[in-house]
Amino acid sequence: MPLPDSLWRIRSASWTMAWLWLKSFCSQALWRLNMRNAGGLMPGSLAEIVENKKSELSERMRRRELDSIRLRVAKANHEFAAALNQPGVNLICELKPKSPSAGVLREQVNVDEIINCYSRHARAISVLTDAKYFGGSLELLSSVNSKSQLPTLCKDFVITPYQCFEARESGASAVLLIVKILSDAQLRSLYQCITSLGMDAVVEVQTAEEVQRALRVKPTIMMINNRDLGTFQMDLSTTERLAASIPAGTILISASGILARADIERLLPYCSNFLIGSALMKSDNMDALLSEFVSLQPKAGVVS
């Protein structure tokens, strides 16, 4: 006897869910495999960075228990999301002394000078807190928060709730979550931890599959990374391809590869929030560059 249509639909849905789970699992496994070579992890690769982060965290957590941080943490008030819900071009300016792909970006990092400049043009400030690969620190994040009223994004390779509490203790208003390095369970748990502290989770994606995984947590803020984290190559068309997949009402940020006014003009039909790091850290005249960027106006209909 043939199955009723309703049972066929249930069976079809089950197969679809099983396929999506298997695809996600295989993607994670393949990523880890591709990040390894005969001698171990590729130097400066995403896998190496994450492995180093695990070792780093193990030592930090041994020296200082989570409860001691928890007692010092006050809730934020979602200032980061509010800052990006403004008309016009919204810039998140980044403090990034170095990177694995470009090396040292700025020989002398005068935090006071940079923060003063950013405060004149930006809606928020992103601070790298990874020391080994990006030259940042939680101390740098604390310093920025003591010198500026702008909300800050803690940008790191976050894999445990411990880091979320560290970020909030250092004054962060938002924390980056990179979908590529997290399982679905980790992403959900970390997202909940961040929002429970009154911070905003900035969920970073780089592929269509990662967008679908990210949407399961119903993020308020999503960031499209134009840099392939496997090859470090940049492609602005990543934002152009993925923006249509982001639901209306989601705050959308485009990051990486935004070096000049023309880049923002190209991406304005898709979003109005931009994270800019390397171009600023390498610039001899940050003020002039930022003035060019903020003078642009979003295209009609672009609300993110």
What does this entry look like structurally?
The protein has two domains: 1-34; 60-294, Aldolase class I (TIM Barrel, Alpha-Beta Barrel), CATH 3.20.20.70. The protein has helices at 5-34, 46-63, 66-70, 79-84, 111-121, 138-147, 161-169, 184-196, 208-215, 237-242, 261-267, 278-282, 286-294, and strands spanning 36-37, 40-41, 90-95, 98-99, 103-104, 124-128, 152-155, 174-178, 200-205, 221-225, 251-255, 273-276. The relative contact order is 0.12. It starts with a helix and ends in a 10-residue tail after the last helix. Helix 10 links the parallel strand 10 (221-225) and strand 11. The chain is α/β, with parallel strands linked by helices and 304 residues long. The strands form three sheets. The chain has an eight-stranded parallel barrel, surrounded by five helices.
Count the DSSP helices. 13
Q: What integer value in Å does the Rg equal?
A: 20 Å
End-to-end separation in angstroms reads: 52 Å
Spell out the CATH superfamily of the largest domain: Aldolase class I
| Biggest sheet record | 8 strands, parallel, barrel
Structural classification: alpha/beta
Shape assignment: globular
| Shape-level CATH architecture of the largest domain | Alpha-Beta Barrel
Mean pLDDT: 86
Our count of domains comes out at 2
What fraction strand? 15-25%
Name the CATH class of the largest domain: Alpha Beta
Task: Tell me the strand order in the biggest sheet.
Answer: 3-6-7-8-9-10-11-12
Task: State the helicity in percent bands.
Answer: 40-55%
The H/E string reads: HEEHHHEEEHEHEHEHEHEHEHEHH
Low-pLDDT sequence parts? 6-43
Strand segment tally: 12
Topology-level CATH name of the largest domain = TIM Barrel
